[in-house]
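Below: protein 1.
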Amino acid sequence: MALFITSLNSGSNGNCYYIGNHNDALLIDVGISCRETEKRMKQLELDIKKVKAIFVSHEHGDHIKGVSVLANKYKIPVYITSLTAKNGPRLISHLSKDFKANQTIAVGELVVTAFAKQHDAIDPHSFIISYNKITVGVFTDIGVVCDKLTHYFKQCHAAFLEANYDEVLLENGRYPIHLKNRIRDGHGHLSNKQALELFVAHRPHFMTHLLLSHLSKENNTPQLAEELFAQHANSTAIIVASRNQATPVYTITANGLEEKKLTPLLRPVQLGLF
């Protein structure tokens, strides 16, 4: 009994996260094209027919670009708040399902709980996904670490956690001051330092995988983020989710033991549509 997770893409050029078991799966956001989503899932030998739902965190383009086409092609229900839907992707009405903060939603054998987060969007949410006493969190596009985030982070056997920017690189970078302030004003993104503080202070002893997500191309580097977290990782595997290709599929179990599941050797697949 396990959950299988991968980041199909993570960054300002598109975000899409897969969580599933042997029977059911879901996507959190589809910010890359339908074609690219299909290609990457095929590369990982993931069956798109197992995807029973798409959850939309907020309306920004790097989270919704491919939602409509993918959902309409495969008739996948899209869970999206009514406020986000007014500003988000065009959807066929029968595929769109409203959800609210703190609501628990069953998707096959998976259970999804959404909670509100701080971000410069209309009605943004983060998610935890649970199955057979295993919990995975998707925590990106967060302006600040709040009590709800720490509450749910403590429950996770694995998590996608934003580590968007290095404070020094952002301060000394070429972004205009208004954009720098937007990123770090409490409604933008988490810095490496903020994410690390959450990890060190609230990581549960059973967390086996942490996928550092939504890294800035301009104000961070994979090496910088990974090296910072590696110093405090202990038994938790630290993986940087790429903005150019999918990660391998990781097996998450309640006891930390890996099931025998072959993951194809990945070759870099560059986005052709950004």
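Below: protein 2.
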Amino acid sequence: MPSIKAILKESSKRLREVAQSPYKEALALLANSLKKDTLWLMSHDEIVIDLPSDYLENIKKRENYCPLEYLLNIASFYSRDFYVDKRVLIPRPETEILVDTVISISKELTQPTIVEVGTGSGIISIILALHVDNAKIIAIDINDDALEVAKINAKKHGVSDKIEFRNSNVLNNVDEDIDILVSNPPYIKKDEILEKNLSYEPDIALFGGDIGDEILKQLADETIKRNIKVLACEMGYDQKDKIENYLKKYNKKAEFYKDLAGFYRGFLLREINLSQ
């Protein structure tokens, strides 16, 4: 039987092609299989153990680019851990900028009604529920499987009573007046060739249509038609010009923000001047 040290050394070699931190990922997977924390493993790495079968299976899956988050069923967002599986998109760090923006805007409103389109794992609505007092939050998704995951996370973070989860295609099942519409919608065109790890994530959360920006435009349409105060929306790094040109037909201009890499990553459409 091999030692923990030997197991981690061999696994790290196998993960070199797919992981930025092979040892760290191997350590996390072994800790998960053994139901031990990583500090215990590092301090007992000379111990000889039976190699867990699920660990070997997970190393093989990771070699084939299955995201670590799906293997551990954990993703970090806004310094909190969330449950994830293949039913939902894995949270990205750049979405934290979108959340920060909405939290800041919410401070300008009294008891805002916030609707999130495409809640997925629920991360955006849950963080808003934790940071925005007196908000009415409606989190919608067209996928019941995703809503199940979102409810798991809402319970985990103690905000089930602050969020109404609802099945809806965009705003079809939302009649309420909306102050803030927030979304990280699918915005990849359907024939885009994806990185290998993205092939494990749900298509419904990735592909926005033949062009990719269809849902972005639909959200802008709804914002203007329903006099929603603010639309805060994530987008693809190359979609700024398309959004700008589309809004010209309404004689509207959006405010665009960049991610930490310097790419345009989202936009705000304000239908009402909140200072008035």
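The chain has two domains: 4-64, 95-270.
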